[in-house]
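Obj: model holo form, ligand = pyridoxal-5'-phosphate.
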Amino acid sequence: MSKEAVSRPSRIDQFFVGPGARGDRWRNLVELAEAWSCGSGSRTEFEAALVDIIATEEFHAYPGFKLLTVLGDHVAEDDARATSSLARRITRTILTRSFRQNSGDWETRDEGDSVAADVLPPALGRADTHRPYFEVLIVTGAPATRWPTLATEWRRLRRALDAFVYEPVFVGSFEDAFCATLLNPDFAAVVIHEGFAFRSRHDAPILRTLTEAMDQPESAEASALRLAQVIRRVRPELDLYLVANGRVEDIAGDSQANAVRRVFYAVEELLELHLAIIEGVQDRYDTPFFNNLKKYAQRPIVTFHALPIARGKSIFKSDWIRDMAEFYGPTLFLAESSATTGGLDSLLEPTGNIKKAQEMAARAFGADHVFFVTNGTSTSNKMAVQALLAPCDIAIVDRNCHKSHHYGMVLAGAQPLYVEAFPMTEYSMYGAVPLRTIKQALLNLKADSRLDRVKMVDLTNCTFDGHIYNTRRVMEECLAIKPDLIFLWDEAWFGFARFSPFFRPRTAMGAANDIEAWLSDPKSVAEYEKQQAELGVNPSDDMLLGTRLIPDPRKVKLRVYQTNSTHKSMSALRQGSMLLVKDVEFHSVEAQFREAVFTHASTSPNQQLIASLDVARRQMELEGYGLVHNAIEIALSIRQAIGAHPLISKYFHILGADKMVPAPYRESGFIDYLDSKTNWAVALRSMREDEFCLDPTRMTLVCGTAGFDGTQFKGILANDYNIQLNKTSRNSVLLQSNINNTRSDVAQLIRVLVQISTEIEQRLAQGGPNIRQAFDARVKSLMTDVPDLPNFSHFHDAFRKDAGGRTNEGDIRGGFYMAYDAAGCEYIRLADPEIDRRLHDGPDLVSANFVIPYPPGFPIMVPGQVITQETIHFMRKLDVKEIHGYDAAEGLKLVRADVLARRAGAPAKRAA
Ligand SMILES: Cc1ncc(COP(=O)(O)O)c(C=O)c1O
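Output (holo structure tokens):
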């Protein structure tokens, strides 16, 4: 290589993006090689790009040292053709990932040439069985010149019996190990040999900010245990092995060694380590329920129970429904069963492989217990609410949460104390609930001497539109006011977040684990006492609201629940959901949970759904890290492509973090993922510090500026272009990327947006001034004439007889059952002037049921709620067709004033 290229310091840290970017960089290298080859480019340009790429390629097994050396040799020999041919081959292999199974891809010479035996992973390419492939990171103090020999030694350990095949990847420092762990999603295990350096061989200022942000400043001591702790925080799913030189017993006994799966003594047999690695991966690969279901489906079973579809005979033999068998194939029917024994298990009382599968899911998601749920998170939420709340308990609930929580409160007879999210009126949507609002509600309850009645804080993380709470801060500050509060985090959309180090601390379980670690740290009591001394006796509400409160670690009872729609973000079939538990008091509510399962779970749960939950867990533990990063990368490329396209950006834009999260909640000053100053260190600071941050995979695409309302635009994308999406607002649609998306999906979306923008452009250019005026008027109506979002008003006094003076909780269940008494209800149409008269002169208009317009999808009225002018105004301006709980022909369903008066006079009922 030329001196110039070699002397440029290589950077390894500006590429904290997913696997697609790696492919792009290789493609770019091929283009440079081809340009050099045909004379339109130069060798220097190619070399510079190669130096850049090599720095990070060292963290991947493929192409590996030998192929990269050959590539470098071709360059040194000034052979542009050979260089471009090899670069093309490597690039193709990386993009198709064929090296995982095809030994030919590792060859250093082109087809037909002989192959150096030690270069090849000998067990790859066996055509008989498909063996999953992974990579193992080996952190070592051995000089880099020895790594190829060491790699050969590792490969010699492979046996035909191994269920998996892996390739070793070597690094020599703490920083490189950290960086490799972030960059290479194929790692399934890490072997850390004692005695390596701290500093990377490469130039990495952003990496340094990241390691410092992980509280790992540079120091002389690059301890293996410390590295294990850091890797554990970044990727807890990886198996870590430590190879100690001496003092092996001391290391194994150190509390920090909890992060490590096994400690080996350096001079011992390498084969043991190899077997441990395979066994560790097998532990994650195992899917106890799915495995048994597969076995069950292969058995010749005669059934005399009520599930004719099982075994499929009624279908295969039918002239009329055989197409169903052809469509699904026989396995589905062989795997259908109503049995709970004979290799299967009961979801309602699991004792066998479902129990085991749930325990494995608990491990994967960082919980103590997991319940598999086969009726969606709608059911998980109702189960949690029912199990944890009793009649008249108060729960602080985001009014904007999914309806399952509201219905859960009705079923439990608990009293919701609604708190409001910050409004995003311009886009007709809500954000998330500010912590100050939640603390104020708790302080009000305290002032009313009613803190004992509040049992739960129930919030949605992240929201549909992507607002992520600072879960740790919310829980800590609330626990500082009431140390035994239960938290129910609805993470319907956020289950995948567990598998990204950037999101994990902001998940319910991630935060709960961090709080747990803090509680057991002896420093925590001192921190608490210091703050108490600063706050003094009887601090004012203002002071408490303005302080980041620290709970008393001696009093805290950590009780955290999370629900997630596994089917929304992982590879589970629709309705597959999980309820995660991390609750030190779980033993006291376990029986209630069993009741909740009996209440809500079907006695005929679907086997395929349960199996898919088991398999989704396996996938996330083994490749979730890479998949989530792919989803983030796809989202960033959509954001980038739409923002940068001159025509699309004229009519459409995606809201950045600065638009989605008001400045007071973005303490770090983070602007957006597309801001020119943003890198991963900046994004990480936002994730750590901000009250709310934005999940980049949830993209609010404003379409009002193109003259479309959300519902209309969603329809156009679905009907005319086969692009499906879920949520809309008055002037936007929500795009979301997930673990399933590919770059081709991005290309299709961009192509379609170009086409739609071109059509608008042509229509406006050719249509004359009237068309332009009509377009401008439509945009104005969608973007500026937006109705104010109505806050929750209050429950009618008839439902607040045991409520406090300062808080707005109410008996929603009482209100709900009023609607069952037809004679006690009345209907008034929205346009009827009687509504305005009653608003002005009374008596109060009180809703008899939930009214939930889609969009925005939150209840603008709940049973027992007094309807205000703002709500009526909003309803009258609403132009959506789907409003649950409201029939325009009949009008609003209200509880009659005389019935309310009678109820208001009756004495309040309290729970026993
Ligand atoms: C925040 C939230 N929670 C729960 C649910 C219900 O989940 P599922 O569809 O799995 O029943 C939804 C559905 O959209 C949701 O948005």
